[in-house]
Amino acid sequence: MAGATAALLPLVLQLMGLALAPGMGREPLLPSSTQRRDGGWGEPSPASDYPPTAAIVLTAAEGPDIPHGWGHLQSQGRLQGGPLLPSTPGPPGRQGPWGLYLPEVLSTWESCLGSLLSTQAPSSSSLAFTPAPHRPSLLPWMVGSRWTRVGHRMPPPSPARGKTSPGNPPSPSPIGLAWILVPSGSVVPREPPGLADSRDYQPQAPAYSSALARAPRELWRPLEERLGRLEAEVTQLREQNQVLQGRVRQLESCECHPASPQCWGLGRAWPEGARWEPDACTACVCQDGAARCDPKPGLPRCRGCSHNGQTYGNGETFSTDACTTCRCLEGAVTCSQKPCPRGPCLEPGACCPHCEPGCEYEGQLYEEGANFPSSSNPCLQCSCLTSLVHCVPMKCLPVPCPEPVLRPGHCCPTCQGCTEGGSHQEHGQEWTTPGDPCRICQCLEGHIRCRQHECASLCPYPARPLPGTCCPVCDGCFLNGREYRSGEPVGSGDPCLHCRCANGSVQCEPLPCPATPCRYPGRIPGKCCPVCDGCEYQGHQYQSQETFRLQESGRCVHCTCQAGEVSCEEQECPVAPCALPDSGPQLCPACVLDGEEFAEGVQWEPDGQPCMACSCQAGVPMCRALLCSPAPCQHPTRPLGACCPSCESCTYHGQVYANGQNFTDADRPCHACRCEDGTVTCSLVNCPPTTCARPQRGPGQCCPRCPDCVLEKQVFVDGERFSHPRDPCQECQCQEGQAHCQPRVCPTASCAHPLPGLCCQHNCNGCAFGGKEYPSGADFPHPSDPCRLCRCLSGNVQCLARRCPPLLCPEPAMLPGKCCPQCPATPSSCPRPGSKVPAHHQEHFSPPDDPCRLCLCLDGSVSCQRLPCPPVPCTHPRQGPCCPSCDGCRYQGKEFTSGERFPSPTARCHVCLCWEGSVRCEPRACAPAQCPFPARGDCCPTCDGCEYLGESYLSSQEFPDPREPCSWCTCLGGFVTCGRRPCEPLGCSHPLTLPGHCCPTCQGCLYHGVTAASGETLPDPLDPTCSLCTCQEGSMSCRKKPCPPALCPHPSPGPCFCPVCHSCLSHGQEHQDGEAFEGPPGSCERCRCQAGQVSCVRLPCPPLPCPLQVTEQGSCCPRCRGCLVRGEEHPEGSSWEPPDSPCSSCMCHEGVVTCARIQCVTSCAQPRQGPSDCCPRCSDCEHKGRKYEPGESFQPGADPCEVCICELQPEGPPSVRCHRRQCPSLVGCPASQLLPPGPQHCCPTCAKALSHCTEGLLGSELALPDPCYTCQCQDLTWLCIQRACPELSCPLLERHTPSGSCCPVCQECVVDVDGRRVADGESWQDPSNACITCTCRRGHVDCHLQECQAPSCPHGWAKVREAGRCCERCQAPTQSCLHQGQQVASGEHWAVDACTSCSCVAGTVRCHSQRCPLLFCNPDEAPALHPGSCCPHCLPRPASCMAFGDPHYRTFDGRLLHFQGSCSYVLAKDCRGGNFSVHVTNDDRGRSGVSWTQEVAVLLGDVTVQLLQGRVVTVDGRPVALPFLREPLLYAELRGRTVILHAQSGLQVLWDGQSQVEVRVPGSYRGQVCGLCGNFNGFAQDDLRGPEGLLLSTEAAFGNSWQVPEGPGPGRPCSKGQEVDPCRAAGYRARREANARCGVLKSSPFSRCHAVVPLEPFFAACVYDLCACGLGSAADTCLCDALEAYASHCRQAGVTPAWRGPTLCVVGCPLDRGFMFDECGPPCPRTCFNQHVPLGELAAHCVRPCVPGCQCPAGLVEHEAHCIPPEACPQVLLTGDQLPSTLPSPSREPQGPP
User: Does residue 778 contact residue 760 with C-beta atoms inside 8 Å?
Assistant: First the structure.
């Protein structure tokens, strides 16, 4: 059987036209080292006419792009998936069709040979054919060929698998088995390309041959059947090949004919002879494939032009050369040069000789260094570097949501919405967080970004925010911790003012006062209205029955005040006592008034009485009231401290208005008023016409206006068109207060499959196909047909079927999961239900009774399955023919189209929307009613009626007010207006309203709160003692009570101004009977009034215990005199500090002065002592658990002589200072009379009086028992001074005090730290200073400084000081030092900064630098520096105020102001302590009315520092070089491009030298500053306070109020600030360009800052500045100033944006000196003098802010304006506790890098 098989196999192959190679599979393939020149491999065979050419490998294994059952197509020649052409020419006439159809024919061969080879090769084997193009048919050519297997390794057969049988098949190769068919006699390629594993091939063919020879009979029968079928198929293959060759011959006989010519115009193709009109003046015709266009004749407006012999149509643009563009317009030709592109160009040309650096990519221009995404592929991030574009793939970050969405035009998937706390928000949606309505959050691509809402300050006292809202509202007032409604009374603290809340502000008016029956009513303290109990006459108040004198027109007038009436009579003037007699001159006495003396004839104004004028006449002070002339205006204002009112401002209804101020009358909103020179003029407001039928007028409004629309909590103006806030697919318009919305009209898309938008589906930048979205240009498989491949092209989808090879069978079948049909092995038909015609093999059909099922006929059997329905992505799909569909909705049994809105069938007042198969129902959106009291409608409130206090009323219905029975209300269009019922006018003056009545009546009287019946008489409520009032028919009339007659000749006014006989008149004063009073001043008498007579006696003086007595001028009795020291008297028992000895104390006791040094006592473990403290202090005022207040004292121990005092400090908390009490010197007290101190007493006392220093003892000295005191008699005072003991150097145990001596002494001195001892009397020289010589004097080291005479050296010689010598000498020129590029002489010293000083020593610079101790500040503190000191200290953290731009002011509390005045103004000032004041001077620039900061002046005490343009600094008018130090006031330095001024009070001023200034003050100034920077109280809404403390209404008025008055002499012209809008004056184009350029603030470099610094005010300021700057370089400067201002605030908030670019506000740094630019480098950089300090310590001690500038790169330090390695620094000597000496600087100060 095996032999039959071996014999039959060549026969089978002969039928196929194939030949089996001898020894197939027995020879291993060996590599060949030669390749034939004609393209073949190996040696040519002599038996073949043509060498082997291309080899095609058909692999049965599946691949990634090949369906199951197909084969790989691999080329060893030149096969690229198309026609296969041999590498050498074939026979003539056969190459074309052979190469054209070879792939299809080979595919057919594979299907025919598959069954044969299935028993010889594994399933993954490949067939390789090599065509020979010299025969018309392939199969005959293959007869005699041999097969060779290449490229696969097989493991040797194991013993268990010795035989190959159906039950034990051979193990497949790990790679697969390949078969190569080559022409017989050809040489097999030893190592064809692509089969690299042939070297390791192990022969396996003998095993297969033996298995075939021993095959049983059962295996042979199926093979015979297959061979029979194969023979039939081969015959059919030959027939089809002949048909194909006939088709090829027919194609070769075809000829090519040209197509009819066409023309292109207006975006389409036109056939030959067609005519069209591209415009109204041109007619075109298609001739010979070219469009010929000519102007229409006879139209004047279509006249063309002739230029250089060419004719052009009207409006046509043409070029005469490469650089010129011309245009024809109505017969005239205008030409211009082509503009050079702003972007990059490939190379310079004739027109544009210069190229800007940059790139052009995908039709867009990009600047050099720009980063941008690719417009065609969003997943590529590109950059432009050196005019070349580099693109890298973008990496997508992980998204935080489970189902991200890939949006068209985006590379990375993003989240559709945000989920937080169980709630979900859509992309772009904004909301406020619960519990914090000021926090606004927004969902952006799955991330939640939150910001604080900024509230604008609209009124001075706004009411607190409504529940659920953020910003305070002006609908009420919040004052003194209480809420007030608009119109509600507000307590003012002044009972005479009636104040009420008016829309967030408080308006006050004086209470109305009734008319008084007297002419001169007076005012009583505590009462508001004048009454007749006193008099006000000529501006002065007098009590009733008071008499006074006036001088009018040189006459003396004596007046009396009685019940509001003043009666005056003329008196004779007294004779002047200073008349000059004939005998000679006589001195006149001076006048004394209120203890102050005035010379004769002097006139003055008494303190606090501006309306009085006094003069001294004949020794008598005469005062009179000033009479004010009537003001020439109607509403004058009396300034503070002035007597008479002036017309500089207006007082109107209790409010003061500035001249020129416009305002609205609060009581009459339809009156617009203006204050002009003290007179207020008001006029009616002209209301503009309204466009609606029912305009409305709100409370406090004058003009009616059309109602606004409120939709979804957003307000829209009448007539405005807008998109619905919640449904962007609706377009709305506000009309008559109602928002009318309708679906938005969508334009027709220009493509077949546009992308869906928010509302419309017309985006052709991608494709929506099969429920998915694809970008333009993307390839994707067909969603339902895997055998089709689709491509998206600008919104259109093109799908093409995969190419299938032709089949030889008449009825090929499509197997499930296959793309191409295949021929069945034994095709059989299937019965078709309902039809007599059977279904063919592999035919699909649907049963007639169930079209939703699909059946397949496979070899006589039918398999049916229901059509699978894909899951629908919607909730309410409609039912399609077979499957649910999302192109409509089925809801509650009804079907709706997508986009259709319908009322909800289940919920009343709900509207549903069908959208792509989903139904969403929500309550019908009701616009808020445009009336306060709407009636209830069917679903929404309506203004057709009113609902008021729970009751419903019809429109135009009148009804009584339920809350007020005397009021009547009217309902009109949802508005309810109520008012009191009108009452008839009455003819009485004091009508009475009876209980239960609404209108008053004349049947009684109501007079000042008292009710009286008609005809009733009662005491006057205003004067119940002296007046009676009677009610007559509703009017009250009052009259005085009659007085009884007086029985004495000279009565005096009594009660009710009736004459009585019980008073005395003495020196112009009236006294009652029995009253005792003081006599005239200086008389020392006591007087009494009895029965109208005055009797006086002299007062006795009490005895004094002191011998030294003095009587003061104006006093009656003497007093004890204190102690007199140096002409100054000190009271008895007082203590003071002598000016010449700050650490001593003096006391006065019984005329004896005792002075001694303060003896210090310590009450804590770690006291600290400042430089100005005499004794160490303890930090807290706490001792033994008790806290003491400042000023309190206590005894720290058991010693009563020790005392501690809690004292306030200038900075920081109070501290405790302790010392021993000082005892007075008991001069002249014998020892026997000394009394020891008692318990809890410190000092002894004397039992007898002390000795007194009399005139006889002046100059004498007195020795006391205490040898440390010496007393001397001076100025009648004993002055006892304690002797000061010298400081000893020896230890305490070695000190002793000799008998009778005061001070302790030592036997020797201890010097130096190491304890070197020196004998008494020995002298030595100080090793650190040769000019100091010291001597030991009994333990005290006495040092003297040797004075040297400055030597006069010749020119060029230097003064040097040799070691060991004190004085300098002249030395010949030596080697100098190089410092800052200048030569510094040897021996010269200079200070580098407050911590470092340097000197030149023999050509070498040597420096001493101090290192500060570590500084730890609290979180609310920051380091600060006293000018001149090296080490910082801690101060409360500062606040910052900035002025920038034109100018804008950001206050300490964060408010942004705009003020355009061009004068000098107070920017910031210490309004309490007066420590500093910062002034700015503005100057006009650019457009009219706009100014910038020109210079800054800082006032520190009596020192003025000016910061000028160009960073020039002057101190007291003289320019200074930086750095500059004036201890202890100020220190100025230049850091980068910023001048920084440090002041003693912690103040810092930063000036950029152009227009930006920043002021920083420590937190200790909170609430103490004022000026344009505000008051620094943490509340931005009250920053507009003027110098008087009043809140001003506008920013212009606020800025003008802080103007600094000009000094004497001619000043520069300046103008007050006004409200200016430069963008309105500049026009639309300038505003648009400003918005575009300021858009940098919204770009990515600043994005991280948007969350910490609000962008909106700075963006508005930037646009404002650019509009004001105009065009050109000034606009660039203004833009950079605005960007730097925002970047500065970002740096303060902790964010440093890198915003500068190669062409944007670039800052040049000196690269030759090693510097590089840093936006926020270290403010205290590394230098040669601080490189030893750790970085953390250096940053902690730094007091400068971070400013942009030039910095040294890492690894280098700054030295003399260069960046050098640390090892190149000069030698620096470190000191820890010694400050460097203040030495003069060299001629030129070191400058920082530019």
Answer: no
